[in-house]
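Invent a record, attention on tokens:
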Amino acid sequence: MEPGVEELMPRLLPVDDCDLAEDFDPTVPPRTPQEYLKRVQIEAARCPDVVVAQIDPKKLRKKQTVNISISGCQPAPEGYSPTLKWQQQQVANFSVVRQSLNKHRNHWRSQHLDSNVTMPKSEDEEGWKKFCLGERVYSEIDALSDNENLGIDYIKVGFPPLLSIVSRMNQATVTCVLEYLISWFGEKKFTPELGRWLYALLACLEKPLLPEAHSLIRQLARRCSEVRVLEENKNEEQISALNLIICLVSRYFDQRDLADEPS
């Protein structure tokens, strides 16, 4: 360290030069307190004045900006607000699903996956979107050719959230995939493939929620309420699915300010 710099950093424990043995070697473990202090001095002198961290840009998320809304959910369209009894029944059913998943998690985790199932790495956002939604939804292909049999081509229709798959996902992966799909849903339409995965991932979330998961599910419920209002044809099956997600977020995960008022 340069003398000028050293003067700006007064020593808390000044150490005077001490007599050391002629065979003193700073590369071997110190044998006396004096050798230890001398070794610390030598190592401190070798430290650079400025240290620059080596950051791998690939590990940084593409989107660092988080927009947080404090508003609640938009009311359901007239005539489509779920009853309190219906909401309570969905919460009870969801609780049973979670208990069964937790009870049999180790069993399903030990089951071999089919040869065509390759789960993406947790940081592979685009890979997870294609895995869950399929190339058809991911690429927004509406029309199917007559000679295509998508019923057995999971690469194109997406892999369903099988217990043998979701049981292998730890909480970090569950949260990551949930974030990827909610991000997708923020700009795209609601599909059955998306709904199945959102339900499964919510079933895998452990309580109490981590702050990140807490923010994500609230964002999900608000987005569901937006899509529900904008649904032109008022497809009852789709509105019911959106109602279900809002119900689970608000009533099972205790975000009561987002709950639908009973009809």
Summary: Confidence is low (pLDDT under 50) at residues 1-6. Residues 32 and 183 are 60 Å apart (CA to CA). DSSP finds ten helices and no strands in the chain. The two ends are 74 Å apart (CA to CA).
